[in-house]
Specification:
The protein is an alpha+beta fold. It is built from 13 helices and 6 strands. It has a 6-stranded antiparallel beta sheet, with helices on one face. Helix 4 runs parallel beside helix 6. The longest helix has 41 residues. The relative contact order is 0.12. Belongs to the Vang family.
């Protein structure tokens, strides 16, 4: 198993199970009692000491190595030009305008190479991968070997003999810069262009709720494909909500809790009763009660149907109340804005103050709707007020304000404290540096769920052409004078 981290620190937040009337029957206390833990302390329980230093080293080590290799690449041609002028200046032959043109060429090429290295290699990594990228390691090794070979040739043929042909030395430095530009072109082909054309279709399934999405990727290694899928996941998948999964578990537990089967021989038999709780004794009326239990089991789909129908009814009711409350609050803000235009500028209310003033009028309806849809843990009161102030600042409609709460959005829409994991485990039977193949399966695991990925090759599409003669589909309409036309 291999580990890699997403760039930002993410905290886990699990909602507690609450009844439907928790807002009316309980009192919320913002302090921390002696028998409770804050959210930061709960998240800290899962952290390993020294994990922050390890993440920092994994994040900045590739950048530091890239800077070192870039400095060596850029400093070597300059050293080739400066060393002869410093060590044996009196013996060098003057080359005039030819050397000046070569100097200009080296300067322009080094500037282009500097910008190209900055654009490709000196970017801060967005994640730490479990293994080193094969192509990056290959390009770095090739660059170092090329520079070392030039240094060996330079030391043997120029430094030892103290070559007097300065124009030849300058041309030697120009050839090194040209070779480095070709290596950088090879890096662009391997790292950027090669993966552009889609070759595989990857199906991502979330293990808990079955949320599925498919993406087309090119020739990538498993770890690079996993990183791209995680970026797509945070952008496209709705936020993982464990509260929505608890309803089916409670329904199954309630159904199983209604039966308890004893031994046929009666209470005198020392045999242990079967698991369960409730009251079903297998005796003289065993057949009747077993058949009744079977009928009860067969009607469980009716219970599910009426339960979902009741849930949809309650959601629609609370949604309508929320829409009306928000529209009335925004209408009140518009009226207050029209009145404030007539008063002095010093008496105008701030946007945050206006948001805090109208928030209580919609808070109860919004709280009931979020509690009914089991998304109350995704939105805090501060985040709702900030979103309300944002909508008022940009003169948005009530529908624009409600869109963030009526439908679950992608993971990145919520704050980082609502994300479920900052560490993912890549599980694969093949090496994570190997390329994608047909039929390959790997998974990305975090604390509460996993993403199962299956790889399918994009089929080869054969397209043929069929020529249609423009004269083949022409016809003549003959009309008689006796017709009504």
């Amino acid at each position: 198993q291999a580990l890699f981290h997403v760039p930002s620190q993410v905290k886990e937040c699990r909602p507690r199970e609450k009844d439907d009337n928790w807002g009316e029957t309980t009192t919320a206390v913002t302090g921390t009692s002696e028998l409770s833990l804050s959210q930061e302390e709960v998240v800290g329980l899962w952290k390993v000491p020294g994990d922050g230093q390890r993440q920092g080293s994994q994040l900045y080590t590739p950048l530091i190595l890239g800077i070192c290799v870039g400095l060596v690449v850029l400093a070597t041609p300059l050293a080739f030009l400066v060393l002869p002028a410093v060590l044996w200046p009196a013996r060098l032959q003057a080359c005039g305008s030819a050397c000046e043109g070569l100097f200009l060429s080296v300067s322009c090429k080094l500037l282009i190479l500097l910008l190209a290295i900055w654009a490709i290699f000196l970017r801060q990594a967005s994640a730490s991968l479990p293994r080193v990228c094969v192509y990056r390691a290959l390009l770095a090794t090739l660059t170092l070997l090329l520079t070392l070979s030039y240094w060996l040739f330079y030391g043997v043929r120029i430094l030892d003999s103290q070559d007097e042909d300065y124009q030849g030395i300058v041309q030697f430095a120009v050839s090194l810069v040209d070779s480095q530009l070709f290596v950088h072109y090879l890096a662009i082909v391997l790292l950027e262009i090669r993966q552009i054309q889609p070759c595989y279709s990857l199906c991502v399934i979330r293990s808990t709720d079955g949320e599925t999405s498919c993406y087309n990727l090119g020739q990538l290694s498993i770890q690079r494909a996993a990183l791209s899928l995680l970026e797509f996941y945070y952008r496209d998948f709705p936020l993982h909500n464990p509260a929505l999964l608890s309803a089916s578990k409670h329904r199954a537990a309630k159904h199983l809790a209604g039966l308890k089967v004893y031994s046929v021989d009666g209470p005198g038999n020392p045999a242990e009763p079967a698991e369960g709780s409730g009251g079903l004794a297998v005796g003289g009326k065993s057949r009747t009660m077993i058949s009744a239990a079977a009928r009860h089991k067969n009607t469980s789909h009716n219970e599910l149907y009426y339960e979902e129908a009741d849930y949809d009814r309650r959601v629609c009711k609370h949604r309508a109340r929320l829409v009306v409350a928000v529209e009335e609050a925004f209408m009140h803000v518009r009226r207050m804005h029209q009145k404030e235009q007539k008063v002095s500028p010093g008496d105008v209310m701030d946007v945050r103050e206006a948001a805090s003033a109208i928030f209580p009028t919609m808070a109860r309806a919004l709280q009931k709707y979020l509690r009914t849809t089991r998304r109350q843990h995704c939105h805090s009161m501060d985040s709702i007020q900030r979103h309300l102030a944002f909508c008022l600042t940009h003169n948005m409609s009530p529908k624009a304000f409600l869109e963030a709460y009526l439908s679950p959005g992608p993971t990145l829409q919520y704050g980082q404290e609502r994300w479920m994991a900052d560490q993912w485990t890549l599980v694969s039977e093949a090496a994570v540096t190997s390329g994608l193949k047909e039929g390959m399966v790997f998974s990305l695991r975090c604390l509460d769920f996993s993403l199962v990925v299956t790889v399918k090759s994009i089929p080869y599409i054969r397209m043929t052409e069929e020529y249609v003669d423009p004269k083949s589909h022409k016809f003549t309409l003959c009309l008689q004078s006796e017709t009504s036309v």
